[in-house]
Amino acid sequence: MAALKEGKPRRRPEWLEAAALSLAALVAFFLVRGCAFMPWNRSGPETEVRVTVTRDFGTVVLKDELVRLERGGSAMDALREAAEVETAYGGGFIQGVDGLRSRYDSALGGGEKVDWFFYVNGHLADVGADSYEAREGDWLVFDYHRWDYSAFTPFLAGCLAQAFRRGYGGAVPAKVAVLHAPGAAGQAEEVAGLLRANGSACETLLLEDGWTPRDGEYAVLVGTWKEMANNAYLREAQSNASRLGLFAYVEGGAMRLVGPGGEVAKTLGENAGVLEATGPRLGDGRSAFLVCGLDEMGLDAAVEALRRVLTEGCRPVTVLVAVAGGEPLAVPGEVK
Questions:
Q1: Angle at 13 between CA 11 and CA 16, to 5 degrees
Q2: Is the CB of residue 138 less than 8 Å from the CB of residue 125?
Q3: Boundaries of CATH 2.170.130.30 in the chain?
Q4: Is the separation of the CB atoms in 225 and 200 below 8 Å?
């Protein structure tokens, strides 16, 4: 075999050097970018939700933003996109938002009963914000309020439009039942028309004395209290206001408005109507939404307040009380 001649090392072909440089650059690019374009690192579809941070039962809006997050993200993830969040108990409990912190120490059993509460499309969530998967179009409300009166607040009347369009946890109501007292057929048709314009299928039915909510049923009850009082479910709800967290209830023919701390702050005797749910989540088999008046004028005022909520929008307040000829009052936050 012929010996190799001494001399300068042979150079690799130029095309080979160029290929090596290109490969090195490609490797460096993927290392710097974290393999962003590899299948296992691609960003998935995004979800857009509305995040509203409030205090005092929705009467004071601190933040209101549209947030985009990766599909499958939690309500807690959405809140973190809009605000600085402190958590406790393994991350599932909201301890503070933008420096506004819980005032109650459950470990010590003391302090003021003021905390953060979380709602989805008006429904009080039955899981922590870190466990709820945010869905496209959800309205996520985080409210900071007292809970001396009741640890549970009912469905938010100010979110009614969103509740019927989006439901809770991805379960959207197929139909809304508008049940009316015998003398309120006209107002019930008006309510049904407003809900249909909002995108909900509706049926109007007579409210029977023995009616109770069924699981999965979104029910709106329309009438004057005098006519609706024959229904045992409604009578029981009104007589257990504090247990159910009702901030407006009828007693002795008058409407009692409860303040944030649980005290009866105002009593209305005539021409008053109310928009209020009897429980935390519509469709849960225990809750219904009331469009009710002490008398005919009060009922008409409640229907007008509902029209404004559905057509003009509203803060995510707990209860709206309307008096004929006046502006709706947010209860309990605005009760003096």
A1: 120
A2: no
A3: 46-146
A4: no
Distances (CA, A) of 10 to 1, 15, 19, 273: 19, 15, 18, 96
Q: 46-146, which class in CATH?
A: mainly beta
AA letter at 223: G
> Could you report the per-residue pLDDT of 195-234, keeping only the tens digit for each?
999 999 999 999 999 999 999 999 999 999 999 999 999 9
CA–CA separation, 195 and 187 (whole Å): 12
Buried b (16+ CB within 10 A) or exposed e, 23-53: eeeeeeeeeeeeeeeeeeeeeeeebebbbbb
**How many angstroms separate the CA atoms of 95 and 89, rounded?**
9
pTM for the full predicted model: 0.85
CB 336 within 8 A of CB 265: yes
79 touches 140 (CB < 8 A): yes
Residue numbers in the chain where pLDDT is lower than 50: 1-12, 15-17, 19-21, 23-42
Q: Distance between CA atoms of 80 and 17, rounded to whole angstroms?
A: 49
Q: Which CATH architecture has domain 157-331?
A: 2-Layer Sandwich (3.30)
Cα(127)–Cα(75) distance, integer angstroms: 10
Please give the pLDDT value at position 105. Answer: 77
As separate numbers, helices (DSSP H) first and strands (DSSP E) second, the chain gives 8, 20
For β-strands 202-206 and 176-180, DSSP reports them as parallel
**Cβ-contact 100, 93 below 8 angstroms:** no
